[in-house]
Specification:
By secondary structure, this protein is α+β, with helices and mostly antiparallel strands. It has 31 helices and 28 strands. β11 and β12 form a beta hairpin. The radius of gyration is 34 Å and the shape is globular.
């Protein structure tokens, strides 16, 4: 026991020998001789920086560092006269340069307005931007500042709102293009950008009446099925005797707006056989003149623009004593931010001449092509989206039909002049009766799909929001009308779909005659009983709006309701915030861009631009995602990031669509198959039904569709097919995962073992692993200063440089665009694209289980069985 209790003597010979071996190894790698000239050239830049740093005297925050210890005094920190004259001037410049104005100075209406103008110089704000900026994470996309997600809610809360309540999203960044002219000329021009094989287009009889909204995918003229631009929605103005020319509104995504505008100009120019003339009007006015009472309507264009101006922000001012209105951004008074707004007088204190920030520029984009007039309504209309079963009740409380009964006095309001026409007055009565019937329906899905309803409603700011208890009692006391007497009795007509919102002059008047929030609040404060409804009579604003029904998805075994159904509310510019706050008070739950993506993922539908890889906007989005993922991957150390070479992942940060279509020639362009009849045939082949007669159904479908399936393959070899993915057991698909064909051994093993989820891929070796280690070791020595020359950068073999997309014995036929856990189905689900040639190989290898595939995520070796459907 004594031998264990004794302390062993320390012998430093072993450590000394180890250190000596390390030094010998370092010296062996070090250069034997140093060339003085080359050494000085390599260090010349460093010596120059060192010399400049020693000569330059920097003014630090601690002024004592400029003087010796004997000259430092405690009172120098608050009395600048205690400093020597040689230092006093430098410290004064430093202090004045970094002095931040006080919050009281920055929150003045004048300075606040200038700050908002500066912040919107490179991007466009929505009218609800300030409300969202306090509650949402904001992102900059497509030239807009868009709310992305709430700061206090997850995606599960978004699903709960869309499934059981009402989700409201501001989609005012959607761009509208108005085409006006003869119906025949319009149809001949827009028909060159679409194909009837993809579905109903602009000339369908269902849409020409103007009672329903249509949708289609547009292409560059003469390039179908290549050259896709993106999806659009559209609706016509109902025909009227007073308006012989037809009007068409085309709504598109801002990512494809410029491309669509150019293609429309080229198409109409080819149809009209004349060049497009740009008749756009640019209006500029200094900010100080706007504050002196000059209005935007008094300028050349005489058309106030929404807060989302295409070039710069727009503000309008009133006379002295009235607050400043902001029609470009929020169309709201600054009394919402800091009391009653004051008028801007004079120029900025810091400058004498008006700068770019002091000049407001407005571009009203128009193009005349023969008898066709194209007008950009981008940022001149507001669009709110209501999703969920409770959206009906929220809109019922928010939209209250206005009273158009007036005395026989001289008409001084726009609604008096408009509804003097007997036809317009009768149409208003029909709209009111139709809306009362709609309010008795349980959900928007009970109505005719994509119906367009025109209404003239009251100012929502003067309506008192009811309490939650009152709404709950109303729901329990008033039973809903059944489908037979309610929704089926409601028939849409052109009178119901007509609206004064189509008139440009009316839209201008509605903006210019809007009462400010300060005036509304001032009138409310004069009431003896607080909270009573404000009655303004004829002075109350009447706002024309359009309601567009959204049908959602059809009921399935997993989801028995029309999930995603709701309404789109189209408003004139300047009224977004009023209706937004009113809807929030009535129970709507705000969402952002993430909520729209989650809704599309739950519906397993395509969302632009992420799910349109054959468009320019979709490819730009993929490049952005690739660069972000590569940067995130490179920021992590090698031990904390996956080795995709060992995992055998060919493209960990991108989707190799070209290689799926043709492995031999990557230069060939691909496209997404969107022809309705061909997709219907593919559904018969790959969407296998479940039931007792499952095998008979497979054989019968094969015999009927085999010839047409072969014909589709011969015509669309370069095409991709959009597929929906559902996992067989546990596991969730992830973005950029692979879709592979299972072998017969995998299928037999799955049938024999019920717990077999899928095979496991063998881990591959990294041929450059030792070289990478040596490179990292030399980099550390160079950083410590032991090595004089940096290690040579050798081209690293990335996973993208592998030869093919074959994943061993299991060939890759597609990629996953998005995946995760589906809350509606309660299992892993996703969506992606497969090549048509890959689907043919899947059909040949597994004729009786042709919808069975293997899914592998990019960070794992585990395959999992899943089913696809077209």
């Amino acid at each position: 026991m004594e031998q264990f209790g004794k302390k062993r003597k320390y012998d430093g010979k072993a450590d000394f020998a180890k250190k000596q071996r390390i030094h010998e190894k370092i010296l062996s790698e070090a250069p034997q001789a140093i060339n003085v000239v080359e050494y000085a050239k390599c260090r010349a830049a460093e010596l120059q920086l060192l010399d400049a740093a020693t000569k330059q005297r920097k003014v630090s925050q601690a002024v004592n560092g400029l003087m010796s210890i004997s000259m430092r005094r405690r009172a120098m920190s608050h009395n600048i006269k205690r400093l020597p004259h040689r230092v006093r001037e430098m410290v004064t410049i430093k202090a004045n340069k970094h002095k931040k104005p006080s919050r009281r100075h920055r929150r003045r209406p004048k300075n606040l307005l200038q700050e908002y103008v500066r912040r919107q110089k490179t991007k466009v704000w929505l009218e609800t931007h300030i409300w969202h900026a306090k509650r949402f994470k904001m992102v900059e996309k497509w030239g807009y500042r868009i709310p992305y997600q709430p700061t206090d809610k997850s995606s599960r809360a978004s699903y709960r709102a869309t499934q059981h309540h009402c989700q409201m999203i501001d989609v005012s960044y959607m761009c509208c293009i108005e085409v006006q002219g003869n119906e025949e000329y319009i149809l001949s021009g827009v028909s060159r950008l679409c194909n009837s094989q993809t579905g109903l287009t602009f000339g369908a009889k269902l849409y020409l009446e103007g009672t329903r909204e249509g949708s289609c995918v547009l292409y560059k003229q003469g390039q179908y099925p290549l050259g896709a631009i993106g999806p659009v929605t559209f609706f016509w103005r109902p025909t009227s005797e007073s308006h012989p020319l037809r009007q068409l509104w085309i709504w598109c995504h801002p990512a494809s707006y410029n491309e669509l505008w150019q293609e429309l100009e080229a198409s109409f120019s080819h149809t009209e056989d004349c060049a497009a003339q740009d008749v756009s009007v640019e209006v500029s006015c200094p900010v100080d003149e706007m504050g002196k009472g000059k209005n935007v309507s008094e300028l050349k264009d005489k058309s106030p623009v929404n807060n989302n101006s295409e070039k710069q922000e727009i503000q309008t001012g009133k006379k002295d004593g009235e607050e400043i209105k902001k029609t470009d951004d929020n169309c709201r008074t600054f009394s919402e931010y800091k009391g009653k707004g004051k008028q801007q007088k004079g120029k900025k204190e810091t400058t004498q001449k008006p700068t770019e920030e002091q000049v407001i520029k407005v571009v009203n984009r128009k193009s005349q092509i023969g008898k066709i007039l194209m007008t950009s309504l981008k940022d001149r209309l507001v669009r709110h989206r209501y999703i969920g079963p409770e959206s009906q009740k929220v809109l019922e409380q928010t939209l209250q039909i206005a009273d158009i009964m007036f005395n026989k006095s001289e008409p001084s309001h726009w609604w008096k002049q408009y509804f003097q026409d007997q036809k317009h007055s009768l149409g208003f009565n029909q709209q009111r009766e139709f809306w009362e019937g709609v309010c008795h329906c349980q959900s928007a899905a009970e109505l005719s799909p994509h119906s367009v309803i025109g209404l003239a409603v009251r100012d929502p700011r003067v309506i008192k929001a009811k309490k939650w208890n009152d709404l709950a009692n109303k729901e329990t006391s008033e039973p809903m009308v059944s489908d037979d007497t309610g929704a089926n009795a409601l028939k849409i007509s052109q009178d119901i779909s007509s609206s004064p919102l189509w008139e440009e002059e009316i839209r201008k008047t509605v903006i210019s005659t809007k009462m400010s929030d300060f005036e509304i609040n001032q009138l409310k404060s004069e009431h003896i009983v607080p909270g009573t409804e404000l009655i303004l009579g004829e002075d109350e604003s009447r706002i024309p709006v359009l309601l567009i029904q959204k049908e959602g998805i059809n009921p399935t075994d997993m989801n028995h309701s029309h999930y995603g159904s709701g309404w789109d509310l189209v408003l004139p510019a300047g009224w977004s915030m009023a209706f937004w706050i009113a809807s929030i008070y009535h129970g709507a739950r705000a969402g952002g861009l993430r909520e729209l993506q989650c809704l599309a993922n739950e519906q397993q539908g395509e969302h632009f631009p992420e799910d349109f890889p054959d468009t320019a906007a979709g490819q730009a989005e993929e490049n952005r995602i690739k660069s972000e993922k590569e940067a995130e991957h490179s920021r992590r150390p090698p031990a904390k990031r996956p080795n995709f070479t060992k995992l055998g992942v060919v493209h960990p940060f991108s989707w190799a669509w070209n290689e799926l279509v043709d492995e031999k020639d990557d230069s060939k362009d691909f496209y997404v198959l969107r022809e309705k009849n061909d997709l219907k045939t593919l559904r018969k082949v790959f969407n296998i039904a479940s039931g007792k007669n499952k095998k008979c159904l497979k054989d019968r479908i094969d015999e009927e569709s085999h010839a047409s399936f072969k014909d589709i393959i011969s015509r669309h070899k370069q095409s991709l097919v959009y597929v929906k993915i559902a996992m067989n057991s546990k596991g969730c698909p992830e973005e950029m995962g692979t879709i592979s064909i299972p072998t017969k051994e995998d299928v037999n093993r799955m049938k024999a073992d019920g717990f077999f989820v899928g095979p496991i891929k063998l881990q591959q070796t990294d041929p450059q692993q030792e070289e990478k280690k040596e490179k990292r070791r030399k980099a550390k020595l160079f950083k410590k200063g032991i090595l004089n020359l940096p290690p040579k950068k050798t081209p690293e073999i990335k996973a993208d440089n592998l030869e093919s997309v074959d994943d061993g014995d299991r060939e890759v036929i597609g990629y996953i665009k998005h995946g995760g856990f589906s809350l509606s189905s309660g299992q892993g689900a996703g969506k992606g694209f497969c090549s048509l040639l890959g689907l043919e190989k899947l059909h040949q290898s597994l004729p009786y289980q042709r919808n069975l595939v293997l899914i592998r995520n990019p960070r794992t070796l585990q395959y999992r069985f899943a089913q696809i459907s077209v």
